[in-house]
Amino acid sequence: MVDRPAPVSDSSGQTDVTEAGAAPLDDALPQHVERVLAGYLDRRRADVLGVDPAVAQIADALAGFVLGGGKRLRPTFAWWGWRGAGGDPRSEHAQGVLTAIASLELVQACALVHDDLMDASATRRGRPTVHVEFARTHAANGWSGPAARFGAAVAILAGDLAQVWADDMFHSAALPEGAHARAAEPWRAMRTEVLSGQYLDVLAQASGDTTEATALKIDRFKTAAYTVERPLHLGAAIAGADPQILGAYRRYGGDIGVAFQLRDDLLGVFGDPRVTGKPAGDDLREGKRTLLIASALQRAEQRGDRAAHDVVTGALGHPEPDLERVRAVLSELGAVQTVEQRIAALTGSALDALDAAPVAEPGRSHLFELAERATRRAW
Question: Where is the segment annotated Disordered (predicted)?
Answer without folding.
Answer: 1-25
